[in-house]
């Protein structure tokens, strides 16, 4: 069955969905927003994981830094929501683990 011409936006959206580009772009945006919200220490001691059901998972190098981030959670959530208004970030989940 032959198909006629399609709008370029439709073709690009289909291509990005098939190649996973949107997911990679979203992960990069989450990482950049996290670094901005959490500050310079975040780059050394944390890694952003997946955003599932509104909960952003963050792996942290040690339990001391987890505790510090827990104290800052309301401010971090506010900064992330301002930086990523299209994402639904309702909570942060911190866990100690390897960053590599």
Q: Tell me what the CATH architecture is.
A: 2-Layer Sandwich
Biggest beta sheet attributes:
3 strands, mixed
The CATH topology is GMP Synthetase, Chain A, domain 3
The helix/strand series, from N terminus to C terminus, equals HHHEEHHE
Sheet/helix structural class: alpha+beta
Beta strands, count = 3
Strand content: 15-25%
Order of strands across the widest beta sheet?
Answer: 1-2-3
Mean pLDDT, all residues: 85
Helicity range? 55-70%
- Counting DSSP H or I runs of 4 or more residues, the number of helices is 5
How many domains? The number is 1
CATH class: Alpha Beta
What do we call the CATH homologous superfamily? DnaA, N-terminal domain
Description:
It is a single chain. The protein is α+β, with helices and mostly antiparallel strands and 100 residues long. It has a single domain (8-96), classed as DnaA, N-terminal domain (GMP Synthetase, Chain A, domain 3, 2-Layer Sandwich), CATH 3.30.300.180. It contains five helices and three strands; from the N terminus they run αααββααβ. It has helices at residues 8-19, 21-38, 40-45, 63-71, 73-83, and strands spanning 46-52, 55-60, 91-96. It has a three-stranded mixed beta sheet. A hairpin with a 2-residue loop joins β1 and β2 (55-60). α2 crosses α5. Residues 20-24 have low confidence and may be disordered.
């Amino acid at each position: 069955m032959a198909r006629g011409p399609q709008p370029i936006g439709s073709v690009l959206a289909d291509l990005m969905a098939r190649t996973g580009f949107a997911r990679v772009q979203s992960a990069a945006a989450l990482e950049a927003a996290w670094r901005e919200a959490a500050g310079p220490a975040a780059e050394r001691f944390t890694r952003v994981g997946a955003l599932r059901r509104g909960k952003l998972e963050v792996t942290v190098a040690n339990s001391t830094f987890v505790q510090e981030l827990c104290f800052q959670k309301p401010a971090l959530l506010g900064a992330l929501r301002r930086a990523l208004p299209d994402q639904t970030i309702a909570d942060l989940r911190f866990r100690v683990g390897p960053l590599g």
